[in-house]
Amino acid sequence: MDMILGHFYCDLDGRFSSIRNQETNLGNFFADIMLSSTLSDVAILNSGTLRSDQIHPKGDFKLKDLVHIMPIMDPMIVLSASGEVIWKALENGVSQWPKLEGRFPQVSGIRFAFDPTKPPGHRIDPNYIKIGDEYIDLKKHYRLCTKAYLYQGKDGYNCLKECEVLVPEEECPELCTAIQNHFASMSAVTTRLRRPSRHLQKFVAASKSHTTVSFKMSLDAPTVPLNNNNGISNNKDISNNTNGSTDNNNGLMIENQTPFGSPSPDHNHRDMGLCRLEPKVEDRIIILTNEDMRKSLESERNGDIEMRLTN
């Protein structure tokens, strides 16, 4: 359990008073991995999944920290959800605010604003919801990654029951597995950046996120499984493995690797900055507390529409 998964350059806010009430960098980090690991348009994670109720200080992030945050294995699922269903799901997520309920969403690939002074079910104006760089189309269907738990209608997410399943939970990695795979994959990338290689390394920021990186590995790079039938979390000896290696390179760490995100001996390496783990709050969830905030959103929307008409 003391195995180091990675190194964060900032504190991670997992306090219930934060994560069940507003966007947090810990929620963004987990939601971003959901999005990128399933190639989805939107990810919605109920904040009740994250149970540590503390600030995790910057520095080495260990397996026991991950287990403390996520003590329960949660299978993910990918759905085809209309813009209207996504809107309803978000409405449910903020319906009990400011109560510290586990239904409050942490999201990726989407931005929205809600007015807590309005009655539940009417707090979000869909005109201000953006998926990627586009305003939401209520009739269009999007690829939504969430937990199988929410697809079953738990935490009030009954609207998700009507969605078509694109990738069933049996074929999706469990969330904890996806997170461990993310660390293992990035650790492999970091290691390869630190040694001479004849292969080209290509890095592309995933969904313009600060917290995840998609990449193309060279042909001799280690393979990291994603399916939970072969996933890292199913390694029976993982909690007892303290040397940072596993058999066949299919476990959490690869022999002689450096944990992902840890300080580099060569701080001037131009590519290492892309592997720096420092998730941020990015205004994905905006709480409208005054009329000026609403006017700002309206001005932004009008500007986007005018730009598209001009182009």
TrEMBL record:
Annotated source species: Tetranychus urticae
Cross-referenced Pfam families: 5_nucleotid_C
GO function term, MF aspect, one: hydrolase activity
Domain 5'-Nucleotidase C-terminal: 16-162
Family: Belongs to the 5'-nucleotidase family.
InterPro entries found in the cross-reference section: 5'-Nucleotdase_C (IPR008334), 5'-Nucleotdase_C_sf (IPR036907), 5_nucleotidase/apyrase (IPR006179)
Listed GO biological process terms: nucleotide catabolic process
Region (Disordered): 226-268
Domain of life of the organism encoding this protein: Eukaryota
Biased composition annotated in UniProt, kind: Low complexity: 227-251
Official protein name in the record: 5'-Nucleotidase C-terminal domain-containing protein
